[in-house]
Design brief:
Blueprint lengths: L5 E2 L2 E9 L3 E8 L4 E8 L7 H17 L7 E6 L5 E5 L7 H6 L5 H20 L2 E2 L8 E6 L2 E6 L6 E2 L30 H16 L12 H4 L5 H10 L11 H13 L9 H19 L1 E7 L8 E7 L4 E6 L5 E6 L3 H5 L5 E5 L14 E8 L5 H6 L7 E6 L4 E7 L7 E8 L5 E9 L4 H9 L2 E2 L1
Helix pairs in contact: 3-4, 3-7, 3-8, 4-6, 6-7
């Protein structure tokens, strides 16, 4: 179709792209002074009621889920010729497919993208919806004040999980859709989307889509040096037998997150390339929170670990945090009640997910630090929460610190957890730390303690 001047109050600027069923235009909302994307049903489908129904159902799903991981729908209307259109979020940085075409991504950036894509699909599954067409070109990227946002888009093939046994036609994109999707009338469930996530993961990591199923070449054979757990996860997601795949998008995403947040990614690349994207996001958040952040490199007794040195300007305390964990910075994070009763005030939190730091069910890796006046015995605080069972207890002594460390090598199935109470010799101030790791690494705990500075 030729370029229209406007859709309602939205002034058209240019065409963004076209597909089999719709054309997407960049437009300007002059009333709110904001760019939007407008998706319009193609003219040749104007009188196909089933296609119109599918188009409007996509808008309903996106509107009802209303998630930061999905493209948002702001408005829906109908043109004079009867074709519906939807007004959506404009993704100004293109798609994940555009990124892949530019060259191989750093491993951490690929895993970040994959984690956020998985979170979007997890939201859909929680809404009772199967996407059925997950692929790099259907994942959009938008700039924001805190860094690049991932937005899952194009739900034209999405269906209710409750209707999964009644699909009468094959749907999806070859190379990304599960084997069962190619069979009309096949019984689908959320594991079809898990297969597609595996295919997207394969392409993000290697730069090329997987072969036709069964996929036998592990990503690590194309890109040597990958964590073995990543190879295993991607190949299991791409299994022809869906019983062998991760149970759902959340399970898949949690495993990706754990691989990504491990302090020692085995890929032989500089720390800046590995942690470039999360560090850019963390830097923006640090400025917003009034934190001063610098970067130092330290050896943990194993190669390739980097620290972000984070200083809370109000507490005058500096803490070294592995950069891969420092996704969000919060000053003024409330202490646990038992710790607050010991005199601790709000502290500093640098973590992969600050909102879920106190959750016992959701893995969030990072460091919480606060100062307790005096040198109290925090044994009771460390021994009562947040993990089941008794901790392993050890003393800590160095030139700068003395105190105790309590450790749970396995905390409720979500990695290792450590609490620390240390103070400089002869100084009546205690630094209290909570450290969550995807795996038990006491050497990392010790190095974090050594990098704490009080002013």
């Amino acid at each position: 179709m030729s370029q229209p001047e406007a859709f309602g109050r939205y002034r058209v600027i240019r065409r963004l792209g076209s597909g089999s069923f719709a054309t997407v235009w960049l437009a300007q909302d002059d009333l709110l002074n904001y760019p939007v994307a407008i998706k319009v049903l193609a003219e040749n489908w104007a009188h196909q009621m089933d296609i119109q129904h599918r188009f409007l159902e996509e808008a309903r799903i996106l509107r009802q889920t209303d998630s930061t991981w999905l493209v948002a729908v702001h408005d829906v209307d109908v043109l004079p010729d009867g074709r519906p259109y939807m007004v959506m979020t404009y993704a100004d940085q293109g798609s994940v497919a555009d990124l892949v075409h530019r060259g191989q991504l750093p491993l951490d950036e690929a895993l970040r993208l994959l984690t956020e894509i998985g979170q979007g699909i997890t939201v859909l599954h929680g809404h009772g919806t199967i996407h059925r067409d997950i692929k790099p070109s259907n994942v959009l990227l938008q700039s924001s004040p805190v860094g690049q946002r991932v937005l899952v888009a194009d739900l034209g093939f999405a269906k209710s999980i409750d209707e999964a046994s009644g699909f009468t036609a094959a749907a999806g994109t070859p190379g990304y859709m599960s084997p069962e999707q190619s069979i009309p009338g096949g019984d689908l469930d959320v594991r079809s989307d898990v297969y597609s996530l595996g295919a997207v993961a394969y392409e993000l990591i290697t730069g090329r889509p997987p072969s036709r199923p069964p996929v036998r070449v592990a990503p690590g054979r194309i890109r040597p040096g990958l964590p073995p757990a990543l190879d295993d996860l991607i190949l299991s997601a791409l299994s022809v037998d869906r019983e062998s795949r991760p149970a759902d998008a959340k399970t898949f995403t949690d495993r990706v997150r754990a691989i990504r947040m491990a302090p020692n990614p085995p890929e032989n690349s500089s720390w800046w390339n590995r942690y470039r994207m999360p560090w850019q996001r963390a830097g923006a958040l640090a400025l917003a929170c009034g934190l001063l952040v610098t970067v130092v490199t330290a050896s943990f007794g194993a190669p390739g670990v980097s620290l972000a040195s984070v200083r809370n300007t109000t507490e005058e305390m500096r803490v070294g945090v592995p950069t891969a964990w420092a996704r969000e910075f919060h000053s003024g994070q409330e202490a646990r009640p038992a710790l607050a009763a010991a005199g601790a005030g709000p502290g500093l939190l640098a973590a992969t997910d600050a909102d879920d730091w106190h959750s016992t069910d959701i893995p969030s890796y990072g460091v919480y630090a606060t100062v307790v006046p005096g040198t109290p015995d925090l044994r009771g605080v460390a021994g009562t929460e947040p993990c089941a069972g008794a901790p392993e207890e050890r003393g800590f002594h160095s030139d700068g610190w003395e105190g105790m460390v309590w450790e749970w090598p396995e905390c409720n199935g979500n990695g290792a957890y450590s609490t620390v109470a240390v103070h400089p010799p002869g100084t009546p101030r205690t630094v209290y730390l909570e450290i969550r790791q995807p795996e038990y690494r006491p050497d990392v705990v010790d190095e974090i303690i050594e990098k704490v500075e009080l002013r």
